[in-house]
What does this fold into?
Amino acid sequence: MTSPYWLLPAFLLLSFQLRVADTLSFHAALACVPLAALAGDRHGWRGVGMVVVGGLLLPFGLFMLAGGFPAEPGLYLVAIALAALLAARWPMPDLSGGFRPGFGFLAALVLLPLHVMVARERLDSGLDVMVIVSLLPLLFFLLFLLGWAQAPAPPVLGPLGLATAAGIALAMLDGTVLDLPGRLHYRLDSPADFLTGAACFLAGRYGHTLLEERTSGTALPRWPLATLALLLVLWGGYPAWHALVTLAGERGDLIQSLAPVGSNLALPLAALLAGWRYRRRGILGVMAIAAAVEVAGVLLAWSSANLGTLVVAFAFGALGHGLRDRRDGTRTPWPSGSWFGLALVGAVSLPLILGLEVDEPRDLLVLALALATILVLPFALRALLRRAGLWLSDAARRGWLAVTGLVLLVLGLLPHLKEALAAVGAVAAMVWFGMLGLGEGSGWRSGEALMMGIGVLFYLAMLLTALAALLARLPAVLDSGRELIRWLRPRRQPGHPMATDGIRETVETPTDAMAWLPRLARWVGWVRNGLVLIAVVVTLLLLMDEFW
It folds into this structure.
């Protein structure tokens, strides 16, 4: 069993909300839920501890100019509860014989949707601190568990519908007949919220039927594509409804309060179903639709694009895929992390190479197309090589992907080398004067240059990661290159038939002369880790300085 400590930075990264530009952000807090499921299932109570510690900043609202941690106490409690249930292997009781909505369930319908702004303070350093009580995700998780326990639908969905109707009435009467406090809101206040709760309840029933009772994968839902499409419309259909609100004129407020679309939690349910029913194809399809909706929102000035949406879709799709594997008793190998690394490298280096401004919709579209081209091109080249009878080994494929990433990172760094060196100098000055207290200097807080220096350190860490991956697989890359040269050389001779000798595997023949390469790759990895450690420590010191 691998160490669970990697979950700590993973939860910290997913909890952070980053604002890249006016039209581009990263917010993937919902992905903490499937990550918590993985932690509790694989690592038991140690995984639960990682969820508690790693997501500790999730329930507190801490916002800076570049981003912060959203106040999501409901998601934090859902993550802990899910991890604990899986760690304890606690069986759900069977409620199919009957379920009466008692005081606890009715109290949950009244209290959990409450959104209370407890306090909000802006410090002198510019840091916004918010304390919010909002537990609506916990209600949806309760509905999912009731569905898993096979509770009858009318006793569950009936009170949910009445609570939603009461919330809609409160929202419509607020400011006219009623005068509710500005810090208090009831978030179960639209048909979209009722549909989301009903979808969570039915998802729990489907999961129990298909996983516990080992029913055929086509039994429920009966029309999976239609269900998937409805969930995606429930998530991304709000812009079309907003256009209807605009056309309605004076009755726009009434139509807006009755919106049956616009639920953020519908996308995770759609990805979960797609991963279960269609495996990798479903995950890729939902991610492609989510990316298209986000890009369309920027191009049509609906909203800014959230890169975290793709992470959330992939995380819940992978959870559904894993549930399908568990039911079937199979183990589907996932693609290596090299593809994710190449996508990350492309997203970071292409704006530097092409001179793109990610806050411009046109440049954002160019970046998306260029990134898609980089990801598709290796598949096309591999298909052409296979048609020619040449097959790359797994080590050679990863090595060539590392070469591609290294080239992109170098091309992105060279035009900005002078600015990068100045930014790294700002970080070095902070370490020398501010952290170590050496020399005589003041004003080590270099502002924008220091923030740029932290980004350059992470960029150099990515570059060294690609270099280490290439060094570790350099013999396989050289062998595949020699194989390609041997295949091309006879074709240049006159009269050579345009054919190959058949499919052959590229044989890796590491020699003793290259035995030092793995050792060099480890040294490069240590330098990379040092750069990351310096960047993280400097970032934490800046956050502490801003807070105090």
Q: What stands out?
A: Residues 438-444, 496-511 have pLDDT under 50 and may be disordered. Strands lie at 17-21, 24-26, 61-63, 67-69, 114-122, 128-134, 184-186, 305-306, 390-391, 504-505. The chain is about 65% helix and 5% strand. The CA atoms of residues 158 and 304 lie 36 Å apart.
